[in-house]
Fold this sequence. Notes:
By secondary structure, the chain is an alpha+beta fold. It is built from 7 helices and 9 strands. The chain folds into 2 domains: 2-162, no CATH class; 182-330, Jelly Rolls (Sandwich), CATH 2.60.120.
Amino acid sequence: MKRTIKSIIIGLALTITANGQKSLTLADIDSLYQNAVSRSAQTVLSEVTELKINYAHALKVYRENLFSVRSLDSVAAIAAITKELANWEESDGALKPLVEDADKKMKTLREHYEKKLAEIAMESEKKGQTLRNILVTQLEELQKSLVKSGDMRGALVVHDRLKKLGAGVEVEEVEETAELDSKSMVITTDKGYVNVRSKQKLKLTPGDEYTLTFFVKLKGKEINTHDCLPRFFQKDGSTFEGGDGNEMQKAQRHSEERTISSALDGWDKVTVKFTHFYEVQVVFGLEFYDVDSYQITIKNFALTDSEGKNLITKNLNSSSGWVSSENITFTK
Length: 332
């Protein structure tokens, strides 16, 4: 059924609907894609706005009910709600962290808000990937048509577009998303600094910005400034000369911006935005540090460029994607 639905979606985007209309041009395809992305973004914006309004409304209803409860706890809760609503009114984008004096009811309302927000984000990512898949299919069909008609220059332009989108790159196929989501990598250590190295080789563009995302279960570990950050090795797996003192690594570390947000079922989503400074092919890895023993479970990696293309082609949820280490195990 999934294959049929996908075929229908792509077919509707590709088919010229009637009466001998000419094939889509590159400009037509670009316009269709940009319009679809714009509509998708507007839908997400509307959903997030509605979610924020509903959150504020629930807080106001709770505060109003507390005025009829004559207790010191009610006074404290009313003050906390008022402060939270003030933060809500000041926020242009993401909400500030929940106020420290929040009671159990407020925490429940905020958890519901964060859960729904994560669901919106995940659905948006799925829709974005579908649109990119349709774009690639349209471009491939256009390229075939241009070659058949003898327009080799036009076909070359489309070829360059496809190359930028990563079309033709071999990606490790995973038959079922549910199966992928059920597996994860577990990092366990008694203490200290841990670098884990994958088998994912990358040739990134120096000076370009990239976004790394993945999901973690921290099991009580407090995140420090070294944790959950990308670390790159040389293509042969060795560290770059100078280690932490390497100029390329220092430059990238300075550019890194990491955020952690609540996701579903006890998972947190890690997002790291950074500028790439390595001028050679690299191997992807992660870094963690703590003075105490800890265990972290990780899954569902994505490394995207400025066009939203995911550059991870290995299954990093399984042992096939990582170099064996005493610190790494995998769930079944």
